[in-house]
Write a structure and sequence with these properties.
The protein is mainly alpha-helical. The protein contains 19 helices and no strands.
């Protein structure tokens, strides 16, 4: 295992660096929130505000019409502001706080593995990503999600590197993982896969036995902390392990194979009114969109299964298109491509090449990479695999950026160091 600087090392981390990163990030995103502020709601803002309102009444979804599309964490954050009837500018300014926290956590984590320059670069690349700059002035979950994931990466790496059994750290890591799941419920599936994988590998990889056992405990604690939420969703839907009720609809669009479609998601209004969509989807959507959410999603899932059986090749093409939408924001069905995704493309293409390079180096020399970096890589890949099934968006990909930059910085830094050492020995 490579020698790493101890977590407690302060010589590499003058306090002014994380403080400056936090202050600069907060100022940037606060300014964006102020410039973009409007009382007119866009995107998913109304749903989160409704969730906060219902939470103040005892539930974050309508009890008589339980459509569970997101976890309760973000509505809970908004609830005090809604209760105070304060201006939405205060809710939007919270995103500046979340992004500054994420910038600091990713700095502190990368610092341990790749040094100060990589840590500053990772923090700045996170804070300046065009996707975050685009969505963070609005009431969206991405800033809170990236804060939770950055804190989770910091806590998990600390937990797995400690020599003695760090029970308090494992509980803290599980609580952070739970908060991440309650913000973006797809991570509930990630925790389940991590639990199964760590238990399966425990008797096989003896050199990682301690780390695998800790990951298994953290994953199990995380799922245990989610039991109140899962009990709540079961009471509303009657289903076990119900993280959300929207999966069937997403799979319906992912498997749709009519001319011109490529898996891109459409709203009910578009499906019933657009001339390219209405002949194929209008009657079906009209027959189910007023049904209870669980029954409606079941019919979507059944239709998705039929579509998959009818055209498996088109479903594969749609899946590839989903991956492209996750990374670059295109292609979209029946909509002209715009210049809006261009900054994302220019930012993500080099990022993708760095990721491929790091992945190749990891596979070439797996023992040079610390086990906790492998676990976080696995977490990121499971999330991306699950996110590629429905119609993806770049803002779904960008939340994994803290893990991405940690892995890239660690692998490239260690590989460059090893290459330099080998070169000196050869010359000597």
């Amino acid at each position: 295992m490579p020698t790493l600087p101890p977590p407690e090392s302060k010589a590499l981390s003058p306090r002014w660096i994380p403080l400056t990163l936090a202050a600069g990030t907060f100022a940037l995103y606060a300014l964006l929130s102020w410039l973009c502020h409007s009382d007119q709601l866009v995107w998913d803002e109304a749903r989160y505000l409704d969730g906060a309102t219902w939470m103040l009444e005892g539930s974050y979804v309508q009890r008589d019409n339980p459509d569970i599309l997101n976890g309760p964490a973000y509505p809970a954050v908004l609830a005090p502001i809604v209760a105070a009837k304060a201006s939405l500018i205060w809710a939007r300014l919270l995103n500046a706080l979340f992004m500054s926290g994420a910038a600091v956590f990713i700095y502190l984590t990368v610092l341990r593995y790749a040094g100060r320059r990589w840590a500053i670069a990772a923090s700045l690349l996170l804070a300046l990503h065009p996707n975050f700059l685009r969505v963070s002035p609005y009431l969206m979950t991405e800033p809170l999600t990236v804060l939770c994931l950055s804190a989770l990466a910091w806590s998990l790496t600390t937990t797995l590197r400690r020599p003695c059994t760090p029970w308090l750290w494992m509980v803290l890591t599980a609580l952070l993982f739970t908060t991440l799941i309650m913000t973006r419920v797809i991570f509930g599936h990630v925790a389940s896969v991590m639990l199964i994988a760590s238990l399966a590998l425990l008797p096989l990889i003896k050199i990682w036995r301690i780390q695998l056992a800790r990951v298994a405990v953290i994953s199990a604690l995380t799922l245990a902390f989610c039991i109140p939420y899962l009990s709540y969703t079961k009471g509303l839907t009657g289903q076990n392990l119900c993280w959300s009720t929207g999966g069937g609809e997403l799979l319906y669009w992912m498997t749709s194979h009519h001319p011109g479609e490529n898996g891109h998601w459409f709203s009910y209004e578009d499906a019933m009114s657009l001339p390219d969509l209405a002949p194929h989807h209008g009657d079906f959507i009209r027959s189910i969109y007023k049904l209870p959410p669980l029954e409606r999603d079941g019919l979507f899932a059944a239709a998705a299964k039929r579509q998959l059986q009818e055209a498996p090749r088109q479903a594969l093409i749609n899946w590839i298109s989903n991956i492209s939408r996750l990374l670059f924001g295109f292609p979209r069905s029946f909509r002209p491509e715009e210049l809006g995704p261009l900054p994302i493309i220019l930012f993500n293409v080099p990022l993708l090449f760095l990721g491929i390079l790091a992945g190749g180096l990891m596979l070439r020399s797996p023992r040079s990479v610390p086990p906790e970096i492998w676990f976080l890589t696995f977490l990121g890949l499971v999330y991306l695999g699950g996110s590629s099934l429905p119609s993806g968006l770049p803002r779904h990909f960008v939340v994994i950026a803290p893990v991405f930059w940690l892995v890239v910085a660690t692998v490239l830094k260690s590989s460059v160091s090893v290459s330099l050492i080998s070169s000196k020995k050869t010359e000597g």
